[in-house]
Design a protein that fits this description.
3 domains, 438 residues, Butyryl-CoA Dehydrogenase, subunit A, domain 3, 3-stranded antiparallel sheet, disordered N terminus
Length: 438
């Protein structure tokens, strides 16, 4: 039996290691571009930008062991969620089959709704599995302190796919669909319904564990060819990588730490973001004009677009569902487009609000963008559950257009370099100071 005091000393030794520390150094904030002097940081410590509040670095309290525990739990939950009974329905004595998530996907595929099947496969299955695989690979390298092949490239792509993990969105969409189903039939729940919530929470927590600045510092120490240059004073002959936040010679095109492209400000950022946003505006029109969902039953055959569907739900006293669909299908997309327009105008011409307010607006657009997929996932769930002789739901053409609207607004936000807005703020502040002196 291990002595209690020996166990405590071993845990303390494993938990708090000097190898996890970051030395004091300077970085440029990826949000506002402010030069920040970071102190030496250890486990369970974090640092934010004093100008805009952006998180610069966060070191987990147990950064080597805890991620492997969470990724192991993630794999187990993923397998159980995909194979166990998820939802079922009993309507007027007609019991639908006990569906698993794989059955939901297979129903879409068999009934030739290939686009929605692909969307579900990518966002609910493939992307989370890819993230789990990358997360495990990177943290095995960190735990074992070995330089595994292509680990830097895998880390960079792991960071980029985080916004596309939509298991939590799918779970909320299930709750919305259940409110609709429960109004006319009895719903049965399987083990996967509870497990998917745990799976979503696990993925969210794993995403929060990923801090590029700390991870790339640890990985660079494992590669003798890639030395991290940490500066303690401002220099003009270097450029700060926006992905990993480490300095590189200004003459380089790519960061030798993380492999990302180097630039003072992202080239053609405003033009790319505006072009994608205009595409979203164009696609938004047919997404609200064409049929979003068709409901066939023994007594009726109803085809409805987004607006019609909201009024039908409201008149049928499904007002909670109506409000949710109205919010995610109309309010959020329109708000995203308007806010992105404000951000682009401010970055190109003149500030409409203070840069700090615009930064908060930008992060809100980034956060809220993926939640519009609730409407599409609701249709997918209803289509899978309502597949009986008494009633069935089929998606309409608008579902395809609306999915592209969601994707376009997300990519538009990602393409905008928010530092351009802070550049405008500095120019405005400098002009104001000169005016006061004059």
């Amino acid at each position: 039996m291990i002595n209690r005091h020996v166990w405590q000393r071993w845990w303390r030794f494993k938990r708090y290691l000097n190898v996890a520390n970051l030395p004091a150094h300077n970085v440029a904030c990826p949000c506002c571009g402010t030069q920040v002097s970071l102190p030496s940081l250890g486990q369970a410590q974090r640092a934010n930008c004093p100008q805009c509040g952006e998180l610069l670095v966060k070191i987990q309290s147990n950064p080597f062991v805890a991620p492997l525990a969470f990724v192991s739990a993630g794999w187990i939950l993923m397998l159980l969620v995909g194979t166990q009974f998820y939802l079922g329905m009993d309507m007027m004595g007609v019991v639908s089959e006990h569906l698993t998530l794989i059955d939901v996907f297979d129903n879409l595929r068999r009934h030739e709704y290939g686009f929605l099947a692909t969307v579900m496969l990518l966002l609910v299955f493939f992307t989370p599995v890819l993230f789990l695989s990358m997360f495990m690979y990177v943290h095995i390298a960190l735990y074992q302190q070995v330089n595994l092949p292509f680990v830097n490239t895998i880390t960079r792509h792991m960071i980029r796919i985080k916004p596309w993990l939509m298991v939590d969105v799918f779970f909320i969409a299930t709750l919305v669909a259940i409110v609709k189903i429960a109004a006319i039939s009895e719903v049965s729940f399987g083990p996967a319904f509870a497990l998917i919530f745990a799976y979503a929470v696990t993925l969210i927590h794993m995403g929060q564990m990923v801090n590029p600045h700390w991870i790339f510092y640890q990985l660079a120490k494992l590669d003798p060819e890639h030395k991290v240059f940490v500066r303690t004073q401002h220099r003009h002959d270097v450029i700060n990588c926006r992905r990993c936040l480490y300095d590189q010679p200004a003459t380089q095109d790519d960061c030798h730490i993380c492999g990302a492209s180097l630039y003072h400000r992202r080239p053609y950022s405003i033009q790319q973001s505006l072009a994608i946003l205009l595409a979203a505006c164009i696609l938004f029109i047919p997404s609200n004009v064409y049929t979003m969902m068709r409901t066939e039953s023994l007594t009726a055959d109803v085809q409805s677009n987004v607006i019609d569907g909201i009024f039908i739900l409201w008149n049928e006293n499904d007002r909670l569902v109506a409000v949710i669909i109205f919010t995610v299908s109309l309010v959020i997309p329109i708000a995203k487009i308007i806010m992105m327009g404000i951000l682009l105008y401010s970055a190109k011409f003149r500030l409409l609000l203070h840069a700090k307010t615009l930064s908060k607006m930008y992060h809100f657009v980034e956060f809220i963008g993926r939640w519009s997929m609730i409407d599409i996932f609701v249709i997918i769930i209803l289509m899978a559950v309502y597949r009986t002789n008494l009633a069935q739901v089929t998606p309409g053409l608008a579902s395809i257009y609306f999915t592209f609207v969601v994707f376009a607004t997300m990519v538009s936000a990602e393409a905008l370099d928010i530092r351009l807005i802070w550049d405008k703020q500095r120019q405005a502040d400098a002009a104001g100071e000169q005016h006061e002196r004059a």
